[in-house]
Design goal:
The complex is a heterodimer of chains A (about 80) and B (about 160).
Chain A (H helix, E strand, L loop, with lengths): L1 E6 L3 H5 L3 E5 L4 H11 L9 E4 L2 E3 L9 E6 L6
Parallel strand pairs in A: 1-5
Antiparallel strand pairs in A: 1-2, 3-4, 3-5
Chain B lengths: L22 E3 L4 H9 L9 E8 L4 E2 L2 E10 L1 H18 L2 E14 L3 E9 L2 H18 L2 E7 L4 E3 L4
Parallel strand pairs in B: 1-5
Antiparallel strand pairs in B: 2-6, 3-4, 4-5, 4-7, 5-6, 7-8
Helix pairs in contact in B: 2-3
The chains are: A alpha+beta (about 80), B alpha+beta (about 160).
């Protein structure tokens, strides 16, 4: 199983990259723990999570390859 | 015919409310806005237009003065969200049409980065729909503004 992760806005200042692919992760809680280990400052950042372009709340299981987007507070307009 | 109020039907009898690209690279030129207004002159059922223009403000901040905003977006998700907002607004107000354009990339202070244009037979629907669309898209569309300072430092825009 492959998870394609996209970072946006101020989160890219922390990660230094807009995209990342991780393998063998099966839910969003584990994904967040992994990302917070890779990028400790991410743990203090405010962001929502979208799975396949839909915002999700709480822990969600991945069913097959998934695209996860980490979305900091929006500031369009 | 039992058509929903405000649902725009083209000459082929099809709904025109499909997802539209709202993004364009760089600032929105005043000529684009005037041409957009001009295009509506043939739609004589329209009695009122409402237009909102968002302009990049040269804020004085503790990190310096803003000279430009660099916009990025999760474009696919933004288009899906904008489509839902559009459906909601058309269901709520008897609009003839709605156009939304947002900049991506670099927009200098003083330039236009958002253009929302609603039209209806009578003014109130156009005005209320325009305001609600602006509020919703600022809150719901995954778009981010990176404020570039005169000293080339940056900070991330926060919507109020």
């Amino acid at each position: 199983m492959q998870v394609h992760i996209m970072f946006f806005g101020q989160l890219t200042d922390i990660t230094g990259t807009q995209e990342l692919v991780l393998h063998d992760i099966y839910d969003t809680n584990t994904l967040q723990e992994t990302l917070h280990e890779l990028y400790p400052a991410l743990a203090n950042a405010k962001y929502a999570i979208a799975m396949n372009k839909k915002t999700i709340q709480g822990n969600s299981m991945f069913s097959g390859d998934s695209t996860i987007a980490l979305l900091p507070p929006f500031s369009g307009g | 015919m039992g058509l929903p109020v405000g649902k725009k039907i083209n000459s082929f009898g099809m709904s025109e409310r499909k997802p539209k690209n709202i993004f364009q690279q760089g600032a929105i030129p005043a000529t684009f806005i005037s041409e957009s207004i001009q295009k509506h002159s043939s739609q004589t059922a329209i009695g009122g237009h409402s237009i909102f223009l968002g302009q990049v403000r040269a804020d004085e901040t503790e990190n310096g003065k803003v000279k430009a905003i660099e916009f990025t977006a999760f474009e696919d998700m933004a288009h899906e969200k904008m489509h839902l907002i559009r459906e909601d607004i058309f269901a709520k107000y008897p609009l003839t049409c709605m156009h939304v354009h947002h900049s991506l990339g670099h927009v200098q202070s003083g330039e236009i980065c958002l253009f929302v244009f609603t039209s209806s037979a009578h003014r109130k629907a156009a005005m209320d729909a325009c305001q609600e669309t602006v509020e919703r898209l600022k809150a719901e569309l995954p778009i981010w503004g990176k404020e570039i300072m005169e000293n080339d430092e940056h900070q991330w825009k926060v919507n109020k």
